[in-house]
Write a structure and sequence with these properties.
alpha/beta; 7-stranded mixed β-sheet; two-stranded parallel ribbon
Length: 265
Amino acid sequence: MPTPPPTGPLVTRGTLAAQLRELGVRDGEILLVHSSLKSLGWVCGGPVAVVQALLDALGPHGTLVVPTQTGDLSDPAVWENPPVPEEWWGTIRTSMPAYDPLITPSRGVGVLPETARTWPGALRSAHPQTSFAALGARAREVIDGHATDCRLGERSPLARLEELHARVLLLGAGYDTCTSFHLAEYRIPSPLVKVGRPGPVGWETVTEVSITSDRFDELGHDFERDRPVVRGKVGAADARLFPVADAVAYAERWLAVHRPREEEI
């Protein structure tokens, strides 16, 4: 059977940039983007055009930030989608390449972050599992200092984004992807966990704050009800725009009440 034609809408770099500006993206600001390419419609130029449109809307003094996580650099004993046989675990631990910010591909965050990560001039943070990449005037300020034992806490780009008055753009993505909520987990009682991963000199285990996006969709619903969130359309995608600091402050209060967790290793 012939392949059906795309249903659209047809969007271009120019139309996306115009819609981003209409939504409220400001020239010169710092923007943390969580995205879904397929939600936009039929994009002429694909992910390259979307990154170009974001950079156009931000202008020469703006900064684009994306998550470039690598959750596969983890202990195979905890893999679920899919799991691997237990007899493989030892070999995987001794053979898995260590994180390299220049060449390790992102995973599970979509094609737009991977496109931005490989963009000329992009910088990427140091954490081997929860890195961010940034492009633009203040990329270095955002990316530097990401501690390798602090996934999404005070010594991560999220805290820098909060300090720098950055905003979050959910571009066809839901609140379950909102990494800013994780920063709140570091500011309320949360469990600690042992995290295994490949290191520069072999397999290593570090202690980290336990993070989970469980109930983030509910948290996002209440956040949007109670706090100012700009909503609109970019292409066919639902888009939401709000300050990182607002999301973190609201999540601190909400999680402590609706999803309390015990502090333990």
